[in-house]
Fold this protein.
Amino acid sequence: MNIIINNDFETHDLLGVGIGPFNLSLAALLSPVPSINSKFFDARDSFIWHAGQLLPDAEIQVTHLKDLVTLVDPTNPYSFLAYLRKHKRLYRFINGKFTNVLRKEFSQYFNWVSQSLPNLHFGEAVQDLHFKKSHFVMQTTKRIIKGKHLSLGSGLAANVPPCAKPHLGDTVYHVKDFLMKGNHWKGKTVAVIGGGQSGAEIVQALIADDKNLPAAVNWISSRDHFAPMDESVFANEIFTPNYSDFFYGLEPGTKAQLVKQQTLASDGISNNLLDAIYQRLYYLECIEQLPKIVNFLSNHQLDDIHANQGSHQLILTQHLGDATSVVNADIIILCTGYRWQFPAYLSGVSDKIVLENGHFAVNEDFSIEWDGPAQNKIYVQNAARHSHGVADPNLSLMAWRSATIINSIAGQDIYDLEGESSGMNWHALQSGVSGESKLVGPAYATLGSPVHNFAPSDTVVPFVAPTEVGASATWNT
Ligand SMILES: Cc1cc2nc3c(=O)[nH]c(=O)nc-3n(C[C@H](O)[C@H](O)[C@H](O)COP(=O)(O)OP(=O)(O)OC[C@H]3O[C@@H](n4cnc5c(N)ncnc54)[C@H](O)[C@@H]3O)c2cc1C
């Protein structure tokens, strides 16, 4: 393999690791900013969005306006609407009255953007990074290149329960590989572990084809029911820049509590999908009069897996009664989400990077704390749920985060992000958190204190976070 060494050694302003939606958004919003030159690298040959889970019926869980660019710059040429217009199907799209856009279509849109930008390099894995005096040196599988700043957009890793690791293979696998494994479940018993969106999509796929039905599906979830995503208007306020600003100012313990509390706003199952599964089972059991196929095992935790004469035995704990139960399965599909892990390509600078409780210490502009010159920044995408809130792994704040990073690199407001209107009074609550005494509304009081009408001289006691609530989960467990 030929390694390109840039002998002229131009130092790029920004080098990006990974071209998932998040660094793609950054690249798209950088496209009209000639003062910042950048290059992005991805190990894959071309863009495809979570290929193993790109099921034909899967829909995006947000409005299509939460595309790569629109929420900060609707005039950018790489919006979803621009993609539809370019492909001469905007009228048909509108006439189609889609409630949600298919994930396949968003993947194609992302792919189109990835082919339109000249500074994206696919088929080129980043292997190593180190720092020399004033710049980072990046080694990919094809070149060595220098950059002033980095943007780490290499995504999350599959979360595999430790008890499943020794069994991984053709019949026990993480959902990220689902479509690569083929649909060989006819007449078999399948265990689906995880009661979030991914688990629900897999259950839907397993029961979709009358001619290829499994004998049984055990759908196992530690949650107490197969819960919908909270898409209500006030819950959606959590997915706004103003809320992210508010959240950033909270104490770490309060942040951790809120992330748990807000699980269903980000990790619940789409209502459409729950309806579709329910209606499909009604059809199979009541109209076709087939025996029950899906066995719903909520409140069950997977503890262990034993090999059992060519199939598998799952050992479960039932939360409600603490009882142990055993179910058998020919195939186990782990819909157990994704988690952040320290990227291997950072090993050359790992001794300089500050970790707090196993996470990056993330600044407000999405750069991380590190023991290097302040003028060289390492920005992180999809690694700040603990510091910036539950929207971090989600498409909702993607464009805003990219614009925040661009403003930080430029040292000026290339994108105007100030003064966004909000349905809630997050900024007023923020001043309460920081201990300032400020009038925030005629009937605002902390939890537990009697509501009263404020006279102008009244002080407002700081916002008190709601008390702890149960379950924890990652994006789609
Ligand atoms: C199935 C699924 C559906 C989702 N649907 C939604 C949704 O509808 N709405 C929503 O808001 N959120 C959704 N999400 C959450 C989130 O939007 C996506 O996971 C999104 O893809 C995250 O983008 P990313 O850029 O961080 O990472 P990824 O999409 O994972 O991309 C990371 C990229 O980095 C590359 N890479 C990794 N290491 C290297 C390296 N060393 N060198 C070079 N390249 C490297 C990988 O090849 C990959 O292309 C979904 C998540 C999943 C798993």
